[in-house]
Amino acid sequence: MNITEYKKCEKLMEEAIRKAKQSDDEYKEADCHLNVGNKMAYGIELRKADQHYGYADGINQALATLGFKHDRMKELSKLL
To answer: N or C: which end of the chain has fewer CB within 10 A?
Structure first.
């Protein structure tokens, strides 16, 4: 892997970390809506969270398949 490819993988990893954190926040928001009894908002937040989680997981799998090594990959794995 050359330097340009490594930098692109690094950016993808950062994006995956952001999306994983965003999905965690959305899951928490969905739980709040469920506790209040707002099922419509719960469903919307749950689907958004699922989409962002899947996006981050897909990037994680692609980077792992490429053999990308970085210290923050552990952080991404913990978020997923």
So the answer is: N
pTM for the whole structure: 0.86
Query: In whole angstroms, what is the distance from residue 26 CA to residue 34 CA?
Result: 12
What are the tens digits of pLDDT across the range 63-78?
999 999 998 988 888 9
What are the C-alpha distances in Å from 62 to residues 12, 13, 35, 37, 65? 10, 10, 36, 38, 5
Q: How far apart are CA 7 and CA 10, in angstroms?
A: 5
Is residue 76 within 8 A of residue 17, CB to CB? The reply is yes
